[in-house]
Amino acid sequence: MKPRQDVEEERGFHDMLKKEHYGITSYEILEGNTGYLNLRFFGPLEYCADTLVKAIQALAYTESLIIDLRECGGGMDPNAIPFSVVIFEKPVHLNDLYFRTTGDTTPTGVMAGCRVKNCITNPFTY
Question: How far is Cα 66 from Cα 75, in angstroms, rounded to an integer?
Fold first, then answer.
């Protein structure tokens, strides 16, 4: 059983995520069947996965996709992985976690499944 302080902190954290719509400010389909997703942060999947999946599914069949990260504060790398499904057609190795203390490397983020035909980027994307 978690100490009371930990439970209260976790509840407060979850309440903050909920208030911030789990990082997704808005998503919609714009003119020309262009999907638009405004993302402020990549929250922990244990809390945010349902909201992320809902947004991704709503935009899955658009002709192009804008993922607006201009005000995104970042987050944990594994939490960005669900978005790779709408960007890459073939499996892509996105990330490794390297543990200095043990020297172990754990590959993460090999995902695919693109249904969006065009991914709109800017010069700073890649």
Answer: 19
